Amino acid sequence: ALPESQRTATNSPAIDTVIVLGDEASDASSPLSVAGRELVDGISKILGRSVSLGSSSSQHTSSTLVVGVRDAFTLLEGVPSSSPLDHTDGYWIDPASSSSPSRIIGHDARGVLYGAFAYLSKLAQGRLSSEAWGSSPRAPIRWINQWDNMDGTIERGYGGRSLFFEGGAIREDLARVKEYARLMASVGLNGIVINNVNANASLLSEESLANGVKRVADIMRPYGVRIGLALNFDAPRTLGGLETSDPLDENVVAWWTEKTHLIYKYVPDMLGYTIKANSEGQPGPLSYGRTLAEGANLFAKPLSQYGGFVFYRAFVYDHHLREDNPKNDRANAAVDFFAHLDDAFDDNVVVQVKFGPIDFQVREPVSPLLARLRKTKAVIEFMVAQEYMGQQTHAVYLAPQWQEVLAFDMRVDGKPSLVRDILSPSGPFGWPTTGYTAVVNVGRDTTWLGHHLAMANLYAYGRLTWAPESDARVLLDEWTRLTWSTDPEVVETLGNLLMDTWPAYEGHSGNLGIQTLCDILYTHYGPSPASQDGNGWGQWTRANAKSLGMDRTVATGTGFAGQYHPEVASVYEKIETTPDNLLLWFHHVPYTHVLKSGKTVIQHFYDAHYEGAAMVQTFSQRWASLRGKIDDARWEHVAFKLAYQAGHALVWRDSVCRFYHSLSGIDDDKKRVGHY
Ligand code: GCW
Asked: ipTM score of the complex?
């Protein structure tokens, strides 16, 4: 329960009974009964008063909260004729008047649950409106990817071991999985792929499906969360003992068909499969001389009879790329591999596209592939796990970056085409199945992600999948009120602090679109600008003694800029029109090149690194001002992390500044870098 001082009397309804309508209300596996339990529990804890679950025959008074799907209400008085209740997962909330009860009405059972959490969220923030309101999500796909391995480790996971797996099997104790489903539902997320995209085929054994995967699905289902599985393309060979995994081989087709039937026997509402193929050493259709579409359709066919989807990742690229060829460019790969196949994918294939053309960097332009598929649907892939963004030893609030991505206008056919509209059924391509996924990688740590402040990212991600036009700061303030305190000083201080984190991180890591500049070979963690060239991964900066940056123009470079629709392409093609923050992504220029800001590139590097690192030094002090206003245990956890972050920011600053100083030989105007 919230301490007395944080409870707010304003807008607090005098609810003493919750009534759930409909037969499913007593079925513990239905989101309806979860909604009822959450409301009883939540209202009593928030308001500190006793609330009980009434039966459907109980009397409705102004202190009753009646919840149910819209068909369960005899009258829908007060609900506008066109409302969020017309849409899947939508809800309508109507506070009590003196003569009638409060109502939470859902389009469907899941909508009731989302409505229940929306109601509790407002109540806990002291912001329950006296007016009726409702909401429905912009996109049907609001998922999570976990990169959990069956041995219990998590690839790029920084919050402890897997909630799902240990020792090669699904864990016995799935209590945290239930909590995760609850957490997901509370922010509007409805699907999760539970295993690593670098997938282990043994997950598909009958033993594992019957005794493991099924239990996970059963535990998450009451929260409206469905599960999907990541597949290993070579499973017919490695698990099935066939001689090949060629997608056109009839034994392979039969193997996957049978496997799919088996999976649906245990998980009848399985969402589908995620496939990472021909990517970073993974097998795939290209290994058998087949197209990516033939590879995807192999899975699409057996899934179609169950309404399942293939999420085919666009992260296909050559990781042994030669840097000595100036035309080589990993950023080109997604469009090169996928755009010409637009007509070739089955209806239930969805291409899963990382938000930028490389890999979750601190600054990237939006992936042009999102505007180059029309018939084939796509989802965007974000990353909540901060692989390149400090790995949860740094606090970095990422929603401002996502907000920029989602608001970017791709100008398809010369018309407004914001990314967030493309990712909606009502958008320019009219994709019925589109939306969002994010690599989250929570673990068994009590903080989930390894840093209490990192949870702001998971909260904001969920809210953005539902309402992608939301403002990052507004979401952050909501999260603070729900997670830490409704005290305005806490909300203001923490909000200002976290809004400064992404700019600070960009400042002391990679500037002007050069990428994050972390160790690219393996850890993706601390500073290592030298590792950014001469590697096969294609995350290059082409830095030499005089100049740096990737020339991605059509005129003289790799041609990447030409993958955008003409209006966007022409902006990136020219140095004069490319925004400073992406200059080095698109152009190769001398260190002495003068930016729109009037500074040279090298001076900008020095200044940004000193300013970014100086900003991080302020975090601890600002956090210190919250001592006593929040609980000590979490205060100390964060204080410790912020102290580390302050030190590491200096390491970043000095490593990067010294690297470019020794490479270019150009001194810092402000005499901080160099020999004086
Ligand atoms: O960001 C990179 C990671 C790999 C990951 C890959 C991917 C699961 O460094 O660890 O593999 O992306 O997205 O498939």
From this structure: 0.99
Q: Domain range for residue 520?
A: 506-550+588-664
Nearest C-alpha to atom 12 of ligand 1 is from which residue? Answer: 359
**127 and 145 within one domain:** no
CB 369 within 8 A of CB 336: no
The verdict on the CB of residue 359 being under 6 Å from ligand 1 is yes
Contacts of 418 (CB under 8 A, 6+ apart): 406, 407, 408, 409, 410
CA of 176 to the centre of ligand 1 (A): 25
Q: Is 528 a member of any domain?
A: yes
Contact between residue 193 and residue 217 where contact means Cβ atoms under 8 Å apart? no
Q: Residues of the chain whose pLDDT is less than 70?
A: 1-12
Is residue 259 located within the same domain as residue 217? yes
Q: Starting at the edge strand that comes first in sequence, how are the strands of the sheet with 102-106 ordered?
A: 52-54, 17-20, 64-69, 102-106, 91-94, 133-135
Contact 223, 181 (CB under 8 A): yes
Whether residues 313 and 398 share a domain: the answer is: yes
Q: How far does residue 509's CA lie from ligand 1's centre (Å)?
A: 20
Domain-embedded: residue 452: yes
Do both 302 and 411 map to the same domain?
yes
Q: Which atom of ligand 1 is nearest to the CA of 198?
A: 8
For the Cβ of 276 lying below 6 angstroms from any atom of ligand 1, the answer is yes
Positions marked catalytic: 280, 359, 387
Same domain as 403, residue 347: yes
Q: With a 6 A CB cut-off, is 197 part of the ligand 1 pocket? A: yes
Residue 156 near ligand 1, beta carbon < 6 Å: yes
Residue 227 pairs with which residues in a beta bridge?
192
Beta bridge partners of 166: 169
Q: What is the pLDDT of residue 204?
A: 97
pLDDT at res. 126: 92
The answer to whether residue 671 sits within a structural domain is no
Tokens encoding 186: 């509370």
pLDDT for 25 equals 86
Q: What CATH number corresponds to the domain at position 636? A: 3.90.1330.10
- The model's pLDDT over 371-381, given as tens digits with 9 standing for 90+, comes to 999 999 999 99
Cβ atoms of residues 389 and 507 within 8 Å: no
- Closest residue to atom 1 of ligand 1, CA basis: 359
Q: Which two tokens stand for residue 366?
A: 């939006």
**CA–centroid distance, residue 137 to ligand 1 (Å):** 29
504, two tokens: 């600070």
Instruction: Report the run of H or E that residue 381 belongs to, with start and end.
Output: strand 377-383
Q: Convert 574-608 to b/e letters by CB count within 10 Å (16 or more is b).
A: ebeebeeebbbbbbbbebebebeeebbbbbbbbbb
Q: Do the beta carbons of residue 139 and residue 424 sit within 8 Å?
A: yes
Residues 192 and 314 in one domain: yes
Q: State how beta strands 133-135 and 91-94 pair.
A: antiparallel
Q: List Cα–Cα distances, 582 to 69, 363, 513, 532, 595, in angstroms.
A: 48, 8, 4, 17, 11
- Hey, what amino acid is at 197? V
Of 172, 344, 342, 129, give the one whose Cα is nearest residue 247. Answer: 344
> CB–CB of 189/467 below 8 Å?
no
How many angstroms does the Cα of residue 361 sit away from the middle of ligand 1? 12
Per-residue model confidence (pLDDT) at position 384: 98
CB 155 near ligand 1, within 6 Å = yes
230 and 194 in a common domain: yes
* Dist. CA 277 → ligand 1 center (Å): 12
Amino acid at 218: D
Q: Is residue 348 part of a domain?
A: yes
Backbone dihedral region for residue 445 (phi beyond 0: left; psi -120 to 50: alpha; all else: beta):
beta
Q: Please tell me the predicted confidence (pLDDT) of residue 5.
A: 44
147 CB within 6 A, ligand 1: yes
Structural domains of the chain, count:
3
What tokens were used for 643?
């102290």
